[in-house]
Write a structure and sequence with these properties.
Elements: E1 9-12, H1 19-49, H2 56-85, E2 89-91, H3 92-125, H4 130-133, H5 136-162, E3 171-172, H6 179-183, H7 191-222, H8 228-256, H9 266-287, H10 290-308
Length: 309
């Protein structure tokens, strides 16, 4: 347990004190979470089961969908269950555990999005060397590095929180535990801890954003020499990736790249990067991608033939 803490449980206020509003939001979250599980799970199964989706881009996409499914699962199920039983309480250990996994999967997603930008850079700017550079070993190493980077980021954030003494009030005006709301429960001065937390999360976001920006600037410059058909295909793929990057980075940057203060709008912003982005990922990558749609159709035909047998 955290140092010198006399707290055992924390009350999460959620979105509203009104039980009817909270129950209505419970239903909304249940529907969205079900769509996240089905959509992202379907992408993972489709990519794993389809030989035509064996390229590095889809290899990374399968892990992105897996991470987003896990990321959403850190917060949504507990909110749904707590709203249903009308008891929005979490233990201090559970709160710190939620922070750990929230930042573990969130950090991993940031690194995976950066890796995917590098993959697009190699595919478009070095097409003749793409197969050699992005071989199985390299792809596995990059995915492993993304998970490792997420783990280091999360361990740093959690360690800083874990060392603080907590004495209350044991109430958080949020629907899940996160570093900024939890810092307000500490008994000691949190200025240095807040600064280190911002540096930890901010450095990852800034470095990743610079890499993403540099990759796409080079890509856009190189597209001038492509054929119109090749340019359209490359822009379509890059647009899908940039849409996911924007949906995730913008709200995350709003919350984590500022002084450790909580705002009423934080809960709404948090819904975007914890639920909405994982919900839209299958839509953005599947409905805009002909190869994924064709693979889905082949799987559906295969399942129909199997059932007829």
């Amino acid at each position: 347990m955290a140092a010198m803490s006399n707290m055992t449980e924390i009350l999460l206020l959620g979105f509203s004190r009104n039980d009817s509003v909270q129950k209505a939001l419970c239903v909304v979250f249940l529907l969205m979470y079900t769509a996240v599980v089905l959509g992202n799970g379907f992408i993972v199964v489709t990519i794993v089961a389809s030989k035509g989706l064996a390229s590095p881009m889809y290899f990374f996409l399968s892990f992105l969908s897996l991470v987003e499914l896990c990321y959403c699962s850190v917060t949504a199920p507990k909110f749904i269950f707590d709203s249903f039983i009308q008891r929005t309480v979490i233990s201090l250990k559970g709160c710190i555990t939620q922070i750990f996994f929230l930042h573990f999967f969130g950090g991993t997603e940031i690194f995976l999005l950066t890796v995917m930008a590098y993959d697009r850079y190699v595919a478009i700017c070095k097409p003749l060397h793409y197969v050699t550079i992005m071989n199985r070993w390299t792809c596995g190493l990059l995915v492993g590095a993304a998970w490792g980077g997420g783990l280091l980021h999360s361990a740093g954030q959690t360690f800083l929180i874990f060392q603080l003494p907590f004495c209350g009030p044991s109430i958080i005006d949020h629907y899940f535990c996160d570093v900024h709301p939890v810092l307000k429960l500490a008994c000691s001065d949190t200025f240095l801890t807040s600064l280190l937390i911002i540096l930890n999360g901010g450095s990852i976001s800034v470095v990743s954003f610079v890499v993403l920006l540099a990759s796409y600037m080079v890509i856009l410059c190189s597209l001038r020499s492509c054929t119109p058909a090749g340019r359209r295909k490359a822009l379509s793929t890059c647009a899908s990736h940039l849409a996911v990057v924007g949906l995730f980075f913008i709200p995350c940057s709003f919350v984590y790249m500022r002084p450790c203060v909580t705002l009423p709008v934080d809960k709404i912003v948090a819904v975007f990067y914890t639920v909405v982005t994982p919900l839209l990922n299958p839509v953005i990558y599947s409905f805009r991608n002909t190869e994924v749609k064709n693979a889905v159709h082949r799987l559906m035909r295969r399942s129909v033939i199997w059932e007829e047998k």
